[in-house]
Amino acid sequence: MAVKVNALELLQDELPRKRIKGTIGFGSMNDCYQPLEAGLQMTRRALEIIAGHGFPVHILTKSDLVLRDLDCCSASAGSMRGELYGDHGR
């Protein structure tokens, strides 16, 4: 698996330039909560950056690891919207 080590810096540079604050989606092409994310925490840091700029976010995942980041999402509840679905009784 390849990791874009400069992704967070690119995100931080690009978001202030956006005039329209559209929803930023995670997980439509690839689950952002792969096992590697547990250590890297890039998704969590990206969510913090996005919340800091007031963009809404949509996360699609099958991983319980998303629960780790609920505090990050609820810290900016005015700009972060989401729904949590799942079958965690496996």
Give a description of the structure.
By secondary structure, the chain is mainly α. The protein contains four helices and two strands, in the order αβααβα. It has helices at 7-14, 37-40, 42-52, 70-74; strands at 24-26, 57-59. A two-stranded parallel sheet has the order 1-2. The radius of gyration is 13 Å and the shape is globular. The termini are far apart.
Can you give me a brief rundown of this structure?
With 90 residues, the protein is mainly alpha-helical. The chain contains 4 helices and 2 strands; from the N terminus they run H-E-H-H-E-H.
Ranges where pLDDT stays below 50 over 5 or more residues in a row are none
Radius of gyration: 13 Å
> What is the multimeric organization of the chains shown?
single chain
In angstroms, what separates the terminal alpha carbons? 27 Å
Class computed from helices, strands and strand pairing:
mainly alpha
Write out the strand line-up for the largest beta sheet, numbering strands in chain order: 1-2
